[in-house]
Amino acid sequence: MSAVSALASSMSGGSATAGGPQNAFSSLSSESFVKIIFSELGHQDPLAPSDSKALLEQLSSLRNIQSSMDMSTRLKSLVSQNELAAASGLIGKRVSGVTDEAARVSGEVKSVSRTGDGAVLVLQSGERIRMSNLDQVLGAQP
Predict the structure, then answer these.
(1) What predicted TM-score, i.e. pTM, was given to this entire model?
(2) Phi and psi, residue 116, nearest 5°
């Protein structure tokens, strides 16, 4: 197995943890990168040398893809935080929307919670409205 194949297979086995996505490319230092290059060059057949330029291009492409994936993950986190902040600004205000059960409800927002589907407004009546299902902010309770 070549060094690039080993690195690629370790990348595909990477998983997201509480601290963020962990994988081979996000933790690859310049020193590790050079070791991979020298390992690949050391294991090649001297009578049929591999193209080191192609190897560098492949590694560069893989790093660019990983950078894009990391940026996407961070952007999703930022959007989630922004949605929660916007929802918390509605506490004490009267809102209207549709519940997950497709029932139209309105009332004063008592609290906000974060779920896997985003921010959820909890009304004084106990009804819950996802921020994505909110259609009207009526203002403060009279």
Answers:
(1) 0.54
(2) -65, -20
